[in-house]
Amino acid sequence: MTETERPTPPDAMPRPPVGPLMRAMRRRLDVTLAALSAETGLSSGYLSQIERDLATPSLGALTRIAHALGADIAQFMPVPRGSGILNRAATRETTWIRAGGMTYQRLHGDFPGATFSAFDITLPEGFVGEADRHEGEEFVRLISGRVEFRIDGSSYLMEPGDTLHFRSDMRHQALNRAAGPSVLFWLGPSPVLRLRETPHGQ
User: Fold this and answer.
1) Domains and CATH numbers, the chain
2) What global pTM score does this model have?
3) More exposed terminus of the chain, fewer Cβ within 10 Å: N or C?
């Protein structure tokens, strides 16, 4: 699917910025930035940038922030509802954290015990992701564009069709090097875009 064929997030869906929502929730719970940093593995400076709307977290980072605050990621962004084990291309939903930022098209199914997530991710022109490290491993295949991954001090420039497979505990960062958007397929272990289960009786 080309970029022009990909679903476009509707401008008619106003959404409060993630930063102010995150700050209000953190303060209500009396959680310091240092404590949130220790829980998520994200630096206090980066978390402060998110709260001041100067940085946009990736989906994985936002998932960790939401879980650390005892919240559903759906409190920060719309979450496409799962459709079981078959995901139809014609009805596949696209979501995003911030207008003009990365967009995510969910590919994985939705069932108890699922251990990985898969997305087609579009990086806008000029995108520079946060440097991150966490548990697990990740697999990336570049569909279109040109993307540089920096992993533990080494640089890997990807062209369409190239793949990358690495441990997530290695510090990694993605940068879009194309004159336009780049699209990649991403597979990782994080159970992102799945609502937290509510215990029976609550």
Assistant:
1) 18-75 (1.10.260.40), 80-188 (2.60.120.10)
2) 0.79
3) C
